[in-house]
């Protein structure tokens, strides 16, 4: 299998439908309409080459493959959502540890002051 052209929004859409087993409720919760959501899921199925849902006009259920994707999609979205917090923690650590290190250009050398005021 080659590179997949999926993004985190695709996974969020999949999760919304999978957790609600309803395109209507998932679309409402995602602040979209059912038509684009259904199209996104259909495109996702085409990209992956598998059916994720069995659906008719009255019901939606996960296929075996959809059930297998569910925990993977949850994990990916959860990790994606952790990025801002990880960067914030990293940034706070770097900022606090910066004061302990001498700055490389904490003062301007005399020759620079002479030639470039």
Mind explaining what this structure looks like?
With 117 residues, the chain is mainly alpha-helical. The chain has one domain (8-94): Winged helix-like DNA-binding domain superfamily/Winged helix DNA-binding domain (Arc Repressor Mutant, subunit A). Helix content is 65%, strand content 5%. It has five helices and two strands. A two-stranded antiparallel ribbon has the order 1-2. A hairpin with a 4-residue loop joins strand 1 (53-55) and strand 2 (60-62). Helix 1 packs across helix 2 and helix 1 crosses helix 4. The longest helix has 35 residues, at 64-98. The protein starts with 7 loop residues before the first helix and ends with a helix. Mean pLDDT is 84; it is low at 102-117.
How are the secondary structure elements laid out?
Elements: H1 8-20, H2 23-29, H3 34-48, E1 53-55, E2 60-62, H4 64-98, H5 110-115
Antiparallel strand pairs: 1-2
Helix pairs in contact: 1-2, 1-4
